[in-house]
Amino acid sequence: MCGIAGVRRLDGAPVDPAVLVEMARRLHHRGPDDAGTWIEGSTGFAHTRLSIIDLGASVQPMATPDGRKVIAFNGEILNYRQLRDRLDYPFRTSGDTETLLALYDKHGVESVTQLRGQFAYALHDGETGELHLVRDRLGILPLYYYVDNEIFAFASEIKALLPAIGERRVDVASLHDYLAHRSVPAPYTLVEGVRKVPQGHRLTLGRDGQVRLRAYWQIPADAAHRDVSPEEAVRLVADALDASIADALVADVPVGAYLSGGIDSSLISALTAKAKQGEGLHTFSAGFGDPRVDELNWARKVADIVGSEHHEVIVTAEDFKANWHKLSWHRDAPLSEPADVAVFKLAELARQQVKVVLSGEGSDELFGGYPKYRFAQATRWAGLIPAPLRGRILPRLERALPASRSRLGVAVRAMGEGSSAERMRGWFAPFTERERDGLLGGPAVRSAIAPYQRGRGDALSRMLYADSHAWLADNLLERGDRMSMAASLELRPPFLDHRLVELAFSLPSSVKVRNGVTKWVVKEVARAHIPNDVVDRAKSGFKVPLDAWFRDGLRDMANDLLTGPSSFVAQVLDPAAVRKLLAEHHAGTRNEQPRLWTLLSLEVWHREFEKSLRVGA
Question: Is 2 a catalytic residue?
């Protein structure tokens, strides 16, 4: 994995080399092995490299032999060897970067459709005067840009844009999105004027300075479901996972695997060990020293079965306090969950042994792994209750629930939303639409709900489609990239091979949630590799014992951050509503930890964002 950045001066001015150097410096953690810049008149690229393939060569930015086309590339093209064999090109290296140049030289920017892997790259074409930005199909790797009348700039992370675009403010319109998702769905961000290239899209900046954005691949919104038996579905998923694992092991450095003890990481670890055929596998787990949430015993059990060399780290309250601010800087956004800190500590552990690690990310959103998916149809049927009745009864019911029933409260809040799309979004939303409007003093000025409206088919298919966009791409994958890159570690999620994604959306919902069993087809694949007690145990997730860690200090910290005179949250949100959340949580009448976390994380990020505006931060 690497960091890329660049500038095109739309006013015709030459690129300042010092700006490129500073952009690259802010991406050093993404590529500590090498760094380089390239400038030609009004266009310049910067690159920092984490060497994974063709370690001694493939220096970037890289140009074609005639110097007319230049690329800055982040990621891995996992089928690059097959692609090279079909190209007549004067290769000077043996890596995937030059393969991208050769493909473009022959087929143009549409050659992206031939790629398998995870990638974000910029390509300057001196013949056409165009600059192309391309992001992988699922949005595994990030790519941001900014444009005004004078400058177009891009980078792997927002912080690297700031030396080129100057001081920016918070995009207040995006706060509505944040309070609904704990992240901001593409194409927007929390920083005014900064946009994400959406997953599966490419952007072209023409010679005339015009920006054109188009999709080259999309998750099927209305895929025709295959007429397959449950047994055939299991075989298809098993074969697709084997193929994806084989691709994911393409590297010239050691590859390990995360192993939480849950079904997804256990299956990935087992398949990886099988594919490596006895070469040895390092696996990695994190615990919290709290028996209520730890899964280390399960991870050890699976490690023994697959024969991996297993490593563990215990994450403490001190780790959390020491890293919260730093990791907010790395993420360029509020940490969406306390588990972000644990993911970073896990990446630090893995980086001591390997440069690449596989994860089980994406399985839940493709195959129906969350408990809420059992209630997908009920989420739609709730619309049959008259809106005035639903709007009165459900909020009262939710507020009447004791603090110990906070999970039920999430369901009640979701069912009380006004539209089917808002009800789907409500399952993961910290705040309802009405609460967001109250906190921000009015309704959203734009909608981020499109993924919840575009899906077709049955209720489960629509919910999976939506979650594969706003929740997976803009939250979980963003978290995975930043927390692993903070430790200079490359993360690869085999479930997100686009061939497996297309297969998943072609399978009937009956093999995903079957007789009340979530992720049924994945569990049946796993039974051939791991014991039934691992397969069938209840989904736990990566839970952080915040209640125990901050039992003594949370009240003072939360009050200071959310109500103090320097508080950003106190300035932009309704202070009376925030104080009410704090009071009810501290009194124990309601469990507002998830919503308070959302506000606390926003405050911590904003303080780090202000520091980042200073050159040299």
Answer: yes
Query: Which tokens in the block code for residue 447?
Result: 């909608």
Instruction: Answer yes or no: are the C-beta atoms of 38 and 189 closer than 8 Å.
Output: no
Torsion angle, CA of 438/443/444/446, rounded to 10 degrees?
170
Cα 120 from Cα 139, distance rounded (Å): 9
Q: Which of 255, 10, 253, 344 is nearest to 145 (CA)?
A: 10
* Catalytic hit among 1, 2, 162, 525: 2
- The H or E element spanning position 75 is strand 69-77
φ and ψ at residue 118, rounded to 5 degrees: -130, 130
Gap between the Cα atoms of 150 and 95, Å rounded:
35
Tokens representing 205 are 């900046």
Contact of 468 with 133, CB cutoff 8 Å: no
Tokens of 276: 């490596």
Task: Flag whether the pTM goes above 0.85.
Answer: yes
Is residue 45 a contact partner of residue 61, using CB atoms and an 8 Å limit? yes
Locate 514 and state its tokens: 């079957």
Cis peptide before 198 (omega within 30 of 0): no
Tokens read off for 55: 């370690």
Beta bridge pairs of residue 357 = 256, 491
The amino acid sitting at 228 is V
Nearest-CA neighbor of 493 among 261, 313, 258, 300?
Answer: 258
Q: Is 396 exposed, middle or buried (0-12, 13-18, 19+ CB in 10 A)?
A: exposed
131: helix, coil or strand? strand
Is the separation of the CB atoms in 589 and 580 below 8 Å? no
DSSP tag of 109 = G
Share of the chain above pLDDT 70, in %: 92
Whether 509 and 458 have beta carbons less than 8 Å apart is answered as yes
Q: How far is Cα 320 from Cα 342, in angstroms, rounded to an integer?
A: 8
CA dist list (Å): 357 to 76, 316, 327:
13, 23, 20
pLDDT, tens only, 213-245: 999 999 988 777 889 999 999 999 999 999 999
Which of the 8 DSSP states describes residue 599?
H
- Tens digits of residue pLDDT in 461-489: 999 999 999 899 999 999 999 999 999 99
How much is the pLDDT for 547? 63
Q: Is 334 exposed, middle or buried (0-12, 13-18, 19+ CB in 10 A)?
A: buried
- DSSP E strands, 158-280: 195-196, 201-205, 211-215, 255-258
Neighbours of 528 (CB within 10 A): 11
Distance between CA 221 and CA 238 in Å, rounded? Answer: 23
From CA 517, how far away is CA 494, in angstroms rounded? 23
Model confidence at 57, in pLDDT bands (50, 70, 90)? Answer: low
Neighbour-count burial of 122, counting CB atoms closer than 10 A to its CB (0-12 exposed, 13-18 middle, 19+ buried): buried
Question: What residue spans of 224-338 are helical by DSSP H?
Answer: 230-248, 263-276, 296-306, 317-331
